[in-house]
Amino acid sequence: MIWIEVKARDQVDLEFKVLEEGSAISWKFKSDRHDIGFGIFHEGIAVLAIKRIDAHNKMQIGKYDCEEIGRYRIVFDNSYSYVRSKQVHYTIDVVPPWPTAAVK
After folding, report:
1. Fewest CB atoms within 10 Å of the CB: 12, 23, 52, 55?
2. Distance (Å, rounded) from C-alpha 24 to C-alpha 17?
3. What DSSP string runs through 29-52?
4. Is there a domain that residue 55 lies in?
């Protein structure tokens, strides 16, 4: 897992390029203490709105099925916190579509 610090009143943006239709973005993340905002954007448009998640209580695991190719941005948001920085441990992958068997 990768570790990042999201400073108080700030956010960390991670960009991923999806090259094949039908791909998915999968994630696992956990914060050391306190909640963290999490969202996904495609070409600047929110496809998963930023929402505060109690990721310090348990590992957050999920995936987003990409309907379009292009640039996707994962956001860890701590802009609402005036004092506390947050430490986040994460793994994010772009998973290509499963190959389909030829129909006979």
Report:
1. 52
2. 11
3. EEESSS-EEEEEEETTEEEEEEEE
4. yes
Residue 56: CATH number of its domain: 2.60.120.680
In this structure, what are the phi and psi dihedrals at residue 12, rounded to the nearest 5 degrees? Answer: -115, 130
Q: In what order do the strands lie in the sheet with 24-31?
A: 2-6, 86-95, 24-31, 60-65
Contact 4, 12 (CB under 8 A): yes
* pTM confidence score: 0.91
Q: Going by C-beta distance under 8 Å and a sequence separation of 6 or more, which residues neighbour residue 100?
A: none
At residue 34, φ and ψ (nearest 5 deg) are 70, 170
Amino acid at 6: V
Q: pLDDT digit string (tens) for 17-57?
A: 999 999 999 999 999 989 999 999 999 999 999 999 999 99
Domain total for the chain? Answer: 1
Nearest 5°: CA angle at 93, between 103 and 50? 115
- In the structure, what pLDDT confidence band is assigned to residue 12 with cuts at 50, 70 and 90? very high
